[in-house]
Amino acid sequence: MSVLVLGLVIFLGVHSVRVFAESWRTRQIARLGEKGWKSAYALASAVGLVLVIWGYGIARRDPVVLWAPPVWAPHLTALLTLIAFILFLSAYIPATHFKAWVHHPMALSAVLWAFAHLLANGTLNAVVLFGAFLVWALLDYRAGRRRDLALGQVYPAGTLAKDAIAVVGGAVAWAVFAFWLHAWLIGVRPLG
């Protein structure tokens, strides 16, 4: 479990710099340059992610069961992760209603993804992993909304055509991941 926790501290710590240390981040970008900052950020993120994956794999070998997920949990998880995929994609598509409504669809997608996985998993390692991501994503979303308010950020109105791209693309990506990639990469078939 210690490898998982270390990986989470590094990965989520790097991704929390803008949430908790915006002025330090600005100074580092000025000192290192944008490319230098992005390189250091990417390297630390990659190290953290590798440790998270490795640590979660180690913890899965000897799971500590905290509760048995209810029989309906996989179905609700599937629905919530579908919405998360759509929101995630909409973060990269300009002028969607999703971005206009929620302002930070990627952070909100992480909230839904983590919450959905907490519903479907009752082991200690899952609670540590998905609980950490849930708390981080909520804090990140709140910080983003506060930045928007402070800056008077206005998001452009969405269009149905852009929404359709996000919905169809997100649904296709979700289906590929849910029916094939999740089993191949994670070793779990979420939909049987």
UniProtKB/TrEMBL annotation:
Principal location class: membrane
Keywords: Membrane, Transmembrane, Transmembrane helix
Protein localization: Membrane
GO cellular component: membrane
Protein name: Uncharacterized membrane protein
InterPro entries for this protein: NnrU_dom
Transmembrane regions: 40-59, 71-93, 113-139, 160-186
Sequence ranges assigned to domain NnrU in this UniProt record: 3-190
Membrane topology reported for the UniProt record: Multi-pass membrane protein
